[in-house]
What we know:
Elements: H1 2-56, H2 58-66, E1 88-96, E2 103-111, H3 127-136, E3 141-145, H4 156-162, E4 167-171, H5 187-204, E5 209-214, H6 216-232, E6 239-242, H7 248-254, H8 256-261, H9 267-277, H10 284-287, E7 295-300, H11 308-320, H12 324-327, E8 330-335, H13 351-369
Parallel strand pairs: 3-4, 3-5, 5-6, 6-7, 7-8
Antiparallel strand pairs: 1-2, 2-4
Helix pairs in contact: 1-9, 5-6
The structure holds 2-acetamido-2-deoxy-beta-D-glucopyranose (4 copies).
Amino acid sequence: RRSSSDSYTSVRLSETQPKKRPMWQTVLIIIAIVILVLAFLTFLAIWVAVPIAFMQSIAFQRFIMFINVDSPKNPEYNNPEKYDIRGVINFYITTQDLDNFTLVNIGNWMILHEEEIDNFRERANTNQSASQILANTKKPIVIYMHGVACNRVKPVATYNVIRKHFLIIAPDHRGFGDSGPNVELSEAGVVSDTVQLFKWVRSKTNNDIYIWGHSLGAALSTHAVKVLKEEEDIVPMGLVLESAFTTMREEMIHHKLGKIFKWLAYFNQTILDPPERNGFLFRTTTNILSVDCPIMIMHAEDDDVIPYFLGKRLSEVASTKRNLTTQGKVFYHQFPSVGYKHISLTDDPKVPGYINEFVQECMEANKARG
Ligand SMILES: *[C@@H]1O[C@H](CO)[C@@H](O)[C@H](O)[C@H]1NC(C)=O
Ligand SMILES: *[C@@H]1O[C@H](CO)[C@@H](O)[C@H](O)[C@H]1NC(C)=O
Ligand SMILES: *[C@@H]1O[C@H](CO)[C@@H](O)[C@H](O)[C@H]1NC(C)=O
Ligand SMILES: *[C@@H]1O[C@H](CO)[C@@H](O)[C@H](O)[C@H]1NC(C)=O
């Protein structure tokens, strides 16, 4: 009886199975086809359409180079208290664009030296007021060049560290914040604005002037120091490069976005070469050879935007390919992985000591230059 019931079951199974199997197979085949089509479309979209769009569009390249979006959003430049910082003057200077005709409006924050916050009570948010303060300050001055994806309000924590040593002038690059606004954003354009800003500050004071750049701002600062020397015969007191890269080409290869594309056979033709053809070079390893003042380079090991070995490599180029006796020493400070990442290494308690040591060296180098 048992065997007959077994055979009955197996007969029923073998009758129904052939009917169900095509259903399962059909569903599986459809799912597989959909997945394959989606994967193919994703591949086309990410690894074909994006590189080709990038290669073809200068606007796309410009945006990826500069990422000129506001952070914080809706900045209130005339209301620094909102950002927990006092002793700030918001002012504008006018520069000439590369055509020697169009005027560019550059928005700046002047962040008074910590010890001078109360000295300049009658301050107004005008360039006349900024000029008067520059004429009367006893402190050295630093021009602070910020990086991408922010405006001059963002680096408040860094300002609070370096204002213990300097009076800070922090411009927004053309196309960032309220600077520009309707002029072309380019490496040459920002460098030209920076040279003109430096000359404006120089015309107001005889105090020492340093340049400090963070990230892309470090590349822009170094390029500006080269142009200041070659076209204006001006050498600043010192150059500080915070979380800097070697060249934009190398940065694109090592950036996490670049890594998504760098295995492509057409990576160079679509991603690396087109920005260079359009003048987005940021070749700091070349520009730094023209820097005739001491240089301080700082990088955190846990920087996840610009890997620290690029900063280290930059310091090696600066100290092996420049004449340290005539062009100035190089200081390199690497910070351990404790969470500073790309933007917060100035939180390290060693930074004030490093700045003092650097300023001391810059004053000696300046005396030697005569
Ligand atoms: C000072 O600011 C005024 C008004 O914002 C502007 O017209 C003028 O060009 C500025 N001066 C300089 C030297 O940039
Ligand atoms: C602007 O002026 C500089 C020097 O005064 C000159 O070298 C340059 O060719 C000029 N540019 C244009 C577009 O006229
Ligand atoms: C692509 O560029 C990289 C970095 O500059 C270089 O090392 C490599 O040889 C280039 N590859 C080709 C195929 O040109
Ligand atoms: C650096 O320049 C000085 C002065 O010109 C020269 O005596 C010295 O040999 C140079 N050092 C190097 C490493 O080239």
